[in-house]
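Supplementary Methods. Inverse-folding protocol.

Structures were first reduced to a discrete structure-token string of length 196. This string, shown here, constituted the complete conditioning input.
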């Protein structure tokens, strides 16, 4: 916030071009729209296999207006480059990342941990930030998402094993208590022979 007054005028012009295309000197919004269209065309031309991982920028360069550029959208990037099956797998990974955070939050109700609570909140915010950025950048193959996926899943597994361990320990204690109560209530059998 302190740096806002010293930002150059070009920054403010660029920000203004987000809502007013007449202020877009470099025509990036039009270029992005063309890239979205070309990405979708690549997906429709190769719906099952895509054009190959990382190959959209090299796909059909003679007939493209925005040749040699990335798609600037993760979903179109994955769809165009990996096809419908790759897109389904990628959507599954994104879903599992968010689901892991959700499950962690639910498990924390049973076994509260301050650090894991803070961690899961940070992962929810980080994944949400990545999701927003994914609509404007070609970051499907960057490490950031996969790193967040691992960090989102780890606390869930820690909590799950902690809960299972505490449940098992409680079951062992209950079993031991039940056995001791049963033994204390049993009549003592005499080893002496009874004569008739």
């Amino acid at each position: 916030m302190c740096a806002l007054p010293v930002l150059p005028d070009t920054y403010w012009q660029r920000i203004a071009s987000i809502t007013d295309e007449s202020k877009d000197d470099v025509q990036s919004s039009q270029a992005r729209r063309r890239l979205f269209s070309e990405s979708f065309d690549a997906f429709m031309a190769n719906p099952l296999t895509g054009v190959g991982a990382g190959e959209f920028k090299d796909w059909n360069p003679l007939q493209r207006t925005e040749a040699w550029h990335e798609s600037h959208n993760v979903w179109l990037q994955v769809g165009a480059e990996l096809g419908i099956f790759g897109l389904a797998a990628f959507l599954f990974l994104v879903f599992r990342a968010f689901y892991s955070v959700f499950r962690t939050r639910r498990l924390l109700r049973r076994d509260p941990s301050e650090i894991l609570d803070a961690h899961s909140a940070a992962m929810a915010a980080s994944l949400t930030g990545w999701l927003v950025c994914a609509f404007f950048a070609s970051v499907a193959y960057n490490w950031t998402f996969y790193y967040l996926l691992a960090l989102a899943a780890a606390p869930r597994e820690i909590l799950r094993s902690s809960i299972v361990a505490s449940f098992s320990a409680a079951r062992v204690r209950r079993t031991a208590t039940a056995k001791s109560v049963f033994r204390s209530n049993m009549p003592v059998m005499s080893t002496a022979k009874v004569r008739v």
